[in-house]
Amino acid sequence: MNKKITLACAECSSRNYTTHKNVSTQPARLEVKKYCKTCGRHTLHRETK
């Protein structure tokens, strides 16, 4: 089952991106390096609750 998740910047905590993930195959929290408009550079984005 796919679930809609929100990704937040690890440095400034702004919620920049939304995506979908399959909860049954990926139970751990998602961490991706993406561009943050607030910071102005690529930072680590983590899945929020």
From TrEMBL:
UniProt cross-references to PROSITE patterns, sorted A to Z: RIBOSOMAL_L33
What keyword terms does UniProt attach to this protein?
A: Ribonucleoprotein, Ribosomal protein
A Pfam family the protein falls into: Ribosomal_L33
Signal peptide range equals none
UniProt entry tagged with the keyword Ribosomal protein:
yes
Q: Which GO terms describe its cellular component?
A: cytoplasm; ribonucleoprotein complex; ribosome
Gene3D superfamilies, A to Z? Ribosomal protein L33
A Gene Ontology BP annotation from the UniProt entry: translation
Mention one GO molecular function: structural constituent of ribosome
| Record-linked InterPro entries | Ribosomal_bL33, Ribosomal_bL33_CS, Ribosomal_bL33_sf, Ribosomal_zn-bd
User: Is Oxidoreductase among the key words of this record?
Assistant: no
Q: What PANTHER family does its record include?
A: 50S RIBOSOMAL PROTEIN L33, CHLOROPLASTIC, LARGE RIBOSOMAL SUBUNIT PROTEIN BL33B
The record's family statement is:
Belongs to the bacterial ribosomal protein bL33 family.
Q: What is this protein called?
A: Large ribosomal subunit protein bL33
